[in-house]
């Protein structure tokens, strides 16, 4: 067990050192010599875990999955928002995640033919949106597959701009703005005022951290919902009733 734990620690040390190098120099400018210098390990230890620089890069890219575990929330559209906001916050502090994102963008110099860039993130977002659709949280016109690709593309562009303009210091603000203007095209009107889009609100992946006061995502009225159920209640009305405990009233 001690030997196994030591091997896990050594592998993580290599990943973190490599991530620093990839984050600073990109795939083309990185070298195993520099990775070794930062890790403080021997070349034998490095090649025991990774046969090549490309294998290390593959592992760094795969590590993005650690930041793609949706936070628990009965409201799946809110879980989608929280996941994106947590990812944005983590990009500012997690060098392994930053390096994975940079490698995914640099398809000219680093390219794994067996892995489609951003596919893991797209799959997670798509699953959340499909759950939101099944729960009646989305407008009938919404196509979850199209929206998942839109979110991934928009987030990628936003984080690149934020990196260029300010080392991602304003990334949560930019992502919050994305959701502010995107949500009215996704959420049913009865749910929209209860969705929280706050760049200071961080819900880390894993068990729910407890409810927080909700604030309006855009100040839209909850009424005027097209299509009424047979009892005179809209889908939005019924959803609001079922989510009373999950989301506090505004």
């Amino acid at each position: 067990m001690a030997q196994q734990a030591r091997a896990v620690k050594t592998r993580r040390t290599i990943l973190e050192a490599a991530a620093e190098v990839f984050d600073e120099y990109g795939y083309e400018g990185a070298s195993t010599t520099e990775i070794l210098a930062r890790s403080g390990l021997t070349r034998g230890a490095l090649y025991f875990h990774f046969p090549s620089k490309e294998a290390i890069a593959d592992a760094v890219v795969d590590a993005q999955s650690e930041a793609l575990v949706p936070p628990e929330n009965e409201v799946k559209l809110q879980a989608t928002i929280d996941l994106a906001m947590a990812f944005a916050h983590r990009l500012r502090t997690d060098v392994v995640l930053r390096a994975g994102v940079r490698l995914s963008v640099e398809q000219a110099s680093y390219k794994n033919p067996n892995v489609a860039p951003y596919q893991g993130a797209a799959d997670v977002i798509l699953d959340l949106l499909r759950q939101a659709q099944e729960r009646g949280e989305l407008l009938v016109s919404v196509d979850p597959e199209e929206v998942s690709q839109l979110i991934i593309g928009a987030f990628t562009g936003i984080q690149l701009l934020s990196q260029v303009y300010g080392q991602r210091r304003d990334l949560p603000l930019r992502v919050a703005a994305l959701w502010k203007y995107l949500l009215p095209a996704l959420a049913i009107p009865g749910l929209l005022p209860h969705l929280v889009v706050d760049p200071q609100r961080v819900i880390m992946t894993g068990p729910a951290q407890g409810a927080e006061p909700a604030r309006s995502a855009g100040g839209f009225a909850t009424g005027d919902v097209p299509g009424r159920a047979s009892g005179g209640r809209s889908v939005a009305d019924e959803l609001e009733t079922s989510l009373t405990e999950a989301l506090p009233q505004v």
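The chain is about 55% helix and 0% strand. Confidence is low (pLDDT under 50) at residues 206-240, 242-246.
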